[in-house]
Amino acid sequence: MAPGKTIVITGASDGIGAAAARQLHRSGHRVVVVGRSSHKTRAVADEIGADSYVADFTRLDEVRALAARLDAAYPRIDVLANNAGGVFGDPARTPDGFEKTFQVNHLAPFLLTRLLMDKLLASGASVLQTSSVGARMAGKLDTDDLNLDRNFSPIRAYGTAKLENILFTKELHRRYHAQGLSAAAFHPGNVASSFGTRSESRLMRFIATNRFTRAMLISPEKGAEQLTWLAEGRPGADWESGVYYEKRKPARRTNRQAADAELARRLWDRSEELLG
Predict the structure, then answer these.
(1) What Pfam families does this protein map onto (predicted)?
(2) Please, what is the end-to-end C-alpha distance for the chain in angstroms?
(3) Residue 27 burial (10 A CB sphere; 0-12, 13-18, 19+)
(4) Quick one: how far is CA 120 from the chain centroid?
(5) Is there a smaller number of Cβ atoms within 10 Å at the N or the C end of the chain?
(6) pLDDT level of residue 194 (50, 70, 90 thresholds)
(7) Are 145 and 98 in contact (CB under 8 A)?
(8) Are 155 and 133 in contact (CB under 8 A)?
(9) Which helix (H) or strand (E) holds 263?
């Protein structure tokens, strides 16, 4: 593959996002680093000589401002990697009124993608979602209860958000692939990063910080390899649009709801309704 893509990576101030930014920069691509922490985001960008932008996905006005700045700054965007995410604790609402896990992992990247859609279509772009095997383990989506008011737990909220990443990918493909857009979701593996270390969930903090569980996790660099592979790859040749990947292959097992095309359509429509 010839180098030279413009690749926007959210959640790139740490973990697999930062690792993928470094890998793609070494391959000669123009990487755009987006993160929540101004200090950490700038540090990664300065390290590789990349542009950087700061946006807090718990605030949709910052997502809108980010989209406007990206649209103005780049004539084309070849890859949008929706990698930002998080697992949190007790139910908490954002300033926009949505459950935090739902907004950060799904609604904010949905909004960013929709606001950049004209640019992405003109570029024949790939849109990538960092999902998780957690979608299979704990995801259960009810489009009438996207904030999980009726049955909240931190693990279910996270698993459901990762299921939403897969459904968003499938609906992106259905709506826009004929116009040149490609989309994929992927599980990066169980990565030893800061992800989950600040969660209010005792289980997630235990998994993220216990030395025995961390010994079974892979490095952020290893976890980033699948994002890098998708970003550099050619849709239709190296990977297929609309598919959820694990270990560079279409996942053989995932949540049964992930294959529900009508559910994917309802999630899209409800997300648009919530965003006004």
Answers:
(1) adh_short
(2) 40
(3) middle
(4) 16
(5) C
(6) low
(7) no
(8) no
(9) helix 261-275
* Residue of 53, 158, 176, 245 with catalytic role: 158
Classify residue 265: in a domain, yes or no: yes
Residue 167 lies in a domain: yes
- How many whole angstroms separate alpha carbon 266 and alpha carbon 248? 28
The boundaries of the domain holding residue 261 are 6-275
Longest Cα–Cα distance in the chain? 50
Per-residue 3-state assignment (H helix, E strand, C coil) for 190-212? CECCCCCCCCCCHHHHHHHHCHH
Residues pairing with 169 in the sheet: none
Here the CATH number for the domain that contains residue 205 is: 3.40.50.720
Residue 200's closest CA among 87, 57, 84, 36?
A: 87
The first and second tokens of residue 167, run together, are 């459904």
111 domain-assigned: yes
Residue 89 has what pLDDT?
85
Which residue, 57, 53, 59, 89, is CA-closest to 71? 53
pLDDT tens per residue across span 228-250: 999 999 999 999 999 999 999 99
Taking 50 as the threshold, does the pLDDT of residue 1 lie above it? no
Cβ–Cβ under 8 Å, residues 215 and 223: no
Whether the per-residue pLDDT at 20 is higher than 80: the answer is yes
CA separation for the pair 107, 94 (Å, rounded): 12
Tokens of residue 117, six digits: 């859609």
Is 30 in contact with 7 (CB distance < 8 Å)?
Answer: yes
Domain count across the chain: 1
Contact at 8 Å (CB) between 199 and 154? yes
Residue 1 lies inside a defined structural domain of this protein: no
